[in-house]
Specification:
279 residues; mainly alpha; globular
C-alpha cells in the first residue's frame, strides 16, 4: 500500500512537471527533414569499436600483461583496470570519429537549426532538462518494479556501474576517477555513437520519432546484463525513457551538446545521490 502511495506522489509530480514544461514550450520544436551522409557501416563500426575494445580487446591485452608480469589482483586494481578500459575504449572511439569525413562529423554535431545556439547554451539546456526527464524515468521504473514485485520475488540488484562504484568507495582517488568516467567520458562517447551517429543514420529512412524510438530500444538493450536477471526489465524501462528524452532533445535543439548535457546531468545526479547514500 505504501508503495502505491509513493508511486501516486511520483506520478502527480511527473504530471505537474509535464504540464509546466509543456506550457513553457519544452515540447515545441522545429524539426526538419535531413539528408545524412553517414553510412550504416560507419555507424556500426563505431559502436563495435567502443564495445568490443572495452569488453574484449582491453581485457585480452590485460590478460597478456598479467601473463608476462604475474601479480595478485585486488579489488582496487580491478577498479583501476575498469577506469583504464573505459578510457581505452573511449579514446579509440573518438579517434575513429575524427577519421570520418568532415561533412559527416559536422552533421553529427549540428543540425542547421541548432547553430542559432552556442555550444554551452545547448549543453546547459540539456542539463536543465534533467528536471523534466527525471520524474518520468522514476515513475516508469517504479511502475514496472511494482508490477513485477506482485508476481515475482526479485533480489534488489543495482546496475553494474553502481556496483563498481560501491566496491571502490573506500578508495577516494579510484572512486573519483571511476565517477568521472561514468559522469563525463561515457555520456560524451555514448551520445556521439547513439544520438550522433545511429539516430542520424536512421533518419535517412525513418521519421524523426521512429528514429528516436529505434535508437532508444538499441541503446537500452546494450545496457542490459545477465547479472541483472529479471531486473533487466526495470533497467531497460528507465534507460529507454531517458533515451527518448535524449533523442528528442537532439532533434529539437539540433545539437549533440544538448543530449550530452542531459546525459551528464543524469549520471552526475545519480552518482551524487549514491555518494550521499554511502557517506
Amino acid at each position: 500500500m505504501t508503495e502505491w502511495i509513493y508511486f501516486s506522489v511520483l506520478l502527480f509530480v511527473a504530471l505537474i512537471v509535464g504540464v509546466v514544461s509543456f506550457s513553457f514550450g519544452f515540447f515545441r520544436h522545429n524539426i526538419q527533414k535531413i539528408f545524412p551522409h553517414i553510412s550504416g557501416f560507419s555507424v556500426f563500426t563505431g559502436i563495435l569499436i567502443f564495445f568490443l575494445s572495452q569488453l574484449i580487446v582491453f581485457p585480452f591485452l590485460l590478460y597478456l600483461f598479467l601473463l608476462i608480469f604475474p601479480m595478485k589482483t585486488t579489488i582496487d586494481m580491478r577498479g583501476w583496470f575498469g577506469v583504464m578500459g573505459i578510457t581505452f575504449a573511449s579514446s579509440l572511439t573518438l579517434i575513429y570519429f575524427y577519421t570520418l569525413p568532415r561533412i559527416v562529423r559536422d552533421e553529427i554535431l549540428w543540425r542547421w537549426w541548432g547553430k542559432r545556439h552556442g555550444r554551452m547554451e545547448n549543453m546547459l539546456f540539456g542539463m536543465g532538462a534533467w528536471f523534466v526527464a527525471f520524474p518520468f524515468v522514476i515513475v516508469s521504473v517504479n511502475l514496472v518494479k511494482m508490477i513485477f514485485d506482485q508476481f515475482f520475488t526479485i533480489p534488489n540488484i543495482q546496475q553494474l556501474p553502481v556496483q563498481d562504484l560501491m566496491r571502490v568507495r573506500h578508495n577516494q582517488p579510484l572512486f573519483t576517477s571511476l565517477a568521472f568516467c561514468i559522469v563525463v567520458i561515457v555520456p560524451i562517447v555514448e551520445e556521439l555513437l547513439f544520438r550522433g551517429m545511429l539516430q542520424t543514420w536512421l533518419r535517412k529512412s525513418l521519421r524523426w520519432k521512429w528514429s528516436v524510438a529505434v535508437t532508444s530500444v538499441i541503446f537500452a538493450s546494450l545496457h542490459l546484463s545477465p547479472d541483472h536477471g529479471m531486473r533487466n526489465v526495470e533497467f531497460f524501462t528507465g534507460i529507454f525513457v531517458l533515451s527518448l528524452f535524449l533523442g528528442y532533445l537532439y532533434e529539437k535543439q539540433g545539437a549533440l551538446w544538448t543530449p550530452i548535457g542531459l546525459h551528464i546531468a543524469f549520471n552526475g545526479m545519480s552518482t551524487l545521490m549514491l555518494t550521499l547514500e554511502i557517506s
